[in-house]
Amino acid sequence: MSFENDRFAGLIGSAAWLVTPCERSRLACITGVMKPIRETDLYLPVKAHFEALGFDVKAEVRDADVVAVKDGVPVIVELKTGFTLQLLQQGVTRQAMSDHVYLAVPRWKGRAAWRMFKGNLGLCKRLGLGVLSVNVAEGTVQVHHDPRPFTPRKNKAKTEKLLAEFHRREGDPNLGGSRAGGRVTAYRQDAEKCRAYLRAHGPSKGAVVAQETGVANATRLMRDNHYGWFEKVEIGIYAALPES
To answer: What is the spatial distance between Cα 218 and Cα 213, in angstroms, rounded to a whole number?
Structure first.
C-alpha cells in the first residue's frame, strides 16, 4: 500500500502541525526541567501531528515507540535524540511490521548539524524510511520525506569518469584508505611522463612530447602546470623546472 495512491496522499507530507495549547503547555513543563532533550520529549509533538491527520496514536506498542493507525493501516515512528546506527537498524527492522516507518529526531541547530542531518536524510531515502524533525520548544513537527521505495538513479557521466580513471591509471600506486601525501591519479602519471621526457631531452614542443610519451593532452597539461613542474620557454615549447 502506498501513500501516493490512497486517501492519505498529501496528508502525511504536510509541512508542520502545531501541538494544541494544552499539549504545548504540558510539553513546556516537561522540557523546562529536563535537559538535554530526551526521546520522551519528542512523543507529544509526534502524537499531536498524527492525531491532527485523523490517526489514533499510542506509544510503546510491541517494539515500536509510536504507532499511529488510520483505516487499519499502521504507521510506525521510532524516536531518538539523534541519528545513530541503532536508529537506522530499528527503522529497517520495523519495516517488517509496516510499509510506513518514520524516524523522528530533534530539529538541528546550526549549519554543521544541518549538513549532517541532510546526509542522513539521503541515507533514509535509500532505506525507504520517512524522516520527521521535532522542534521541542515550539512543539512542531516537520516532515522531510515520507517512506517510499527507493530506486537509485545511476549517473552515466560519473560512471564513465570512474572507468576512464581506472583504465588510464597505470598499476595500483595508492594504498586504499589513505590519502596522506595525495593520491596518484592518471593525470599525475601523465604529468610525470611529460616531466621525465623533458628532463631527458630538454625543452621540447608540446606535440613532440605528446607523440613520444603517449600523453595526448601533453601541451594543455604542461600549459596548465597544475603541479608547478613546467615552464613555457617559447610559444609551444616547454621545459621541466628543477626540483626545489
So the answer is: 8
105 in Cβ contact with 121 (< 8 Å)? no
d(CA 137, CA 24): 9
127/52 same-domain check: yes
Which range, of 19-33, 34-48, 63-77, 190-204, averages the lowest pLDDT? 19-33
Residue 17: strand pairing partners: 141
Residues 87-120 have pLDDT tens digits of 889 899 999 889 999 999 988 777 777 787 787 8
- Buried/exposed code over 136-164 (b: 16+ C-beta within 10 A; e: otherwise): beebbbebbbbbeeeeeeeeeeeeeeeee
Among 145, 173, 207, the domain-final residue is 145
User: What is the pTM assigned to this prediction?
Assistant: 0.59
Examine residue 164 and state whether it is found in any structural domain, yes or no. no
Q: Within this chain, do residues 217 and 121 fall inside the same structural domain, yes or no?
A: no
Can you give the pLDDT at residue 54? 94
CA atoms within 13 A on the CB side of 165: 11
- Quote the number of domains for the chain: 2
- Cα separation, 237 vs 206, in Å, equals 6
Tell me: do 126 and 231 sit in the same domain.
no
36: cis peptide before it, omega within 30°?
yes
- Position 153 pLDDT exceeds 90: no
